[in-house]
Design goal:
single chain, mainly alpha, 10 helices, 217 residues
């Protein structure tokens, strides 16, 4: 989670800025290994099953996130995430691609394991899933990482769809949205979530990416 926030450091010259989206792609994939290690480290079959569920869910939606971001890369013609936000100085992409924006919200909720897609935790019936064997400092680090990823995904969504102006206000609104969704919607079935990932979201992202590649070239 902290490594991914290096994208923000790229704006201040700490990391490379020109290829910040490639930086995001490379380090986003590392989260899968830590999910698997957390499930295996619990030394119980229930925590291991919860880790497997988290890994399969995360891998399924990470592919769609990468395809969605590549659509904007081909549209703008740059791997610079902050150039993408400056490109929206006069017109936000959210008005140009409103259905795309709602699909992105769905994918981000599933990617961050938040309600109604928190199947790896399942606090009401699985007693926190793969976290059942952790306590004190390690347990705190797990949830600090999870909520840090929520803030990062909101930050990334703002740069891609809403530009860079007043991003703190927009970020607060997205964090409130996550809390509102958690308090409003019931949990889905795990099978339905995976069916949507491979049967609807992935073909949609591939189709839009193919269309923009044809237009770009």
């Amino acid at each position: 989670m902290i490594i991914l926030w290096g994208i923000y450091g790229g704006y201040w010259g700490v990391f490379g800025r020109i290829y910040s989206i490639i930086y995001f792609f490379c380090f986003l994939r590392l989260g899968v290994y830590f999910l698997l290690f957390r499930g295996w480290g619990g030394s119980r079959k229930y925590s291991l099953v919860g880790g497997y569920r988290a890994v399969s869910q995360t891998v399924s939606y990470e592919v769609s996130i990468i395809f969605f971001v590549l659509v904007f890369v081909y549209f703008v013609g740059s791997y610079d995430l902050f150039f993408l936000s400056l490109f929206q100085f006069n017109f936000w992409f959210v008005f140009l691609r409103l259905p795309f924006f709602f699909s992105w919200i769905y994918v981000c909720l599933a990617e961050s394991n938040r309600t109604p897609f928190d199947f790896s935790e399942g606090e009401s019936e699985l007693v926190s899933g793969f976290n059942i064997e952790y306590r004190r400092g390690v347990f705190s680090l797990i949830f600090i990482c999870e909520y840090g990823m929520i803030i990062f995904i909101g930050f990334l969504r703002i740069l891609i769809f809403l530009g860079r102006s007043r991003y703190l206000i927009k970020l607060g609104m997205f964090c409130f949205f996550y809390v509102w969704v958690r308090c409003t919607f019931p949990r889905y079935r795990y099978m339905d979530l995976m069916d949507v990932a491979w049967g609807l979201i992935l073909p949609l992202s591939l189709s839009v990416l193919f269309l923009f590649c044809v237009l770009y070239f």
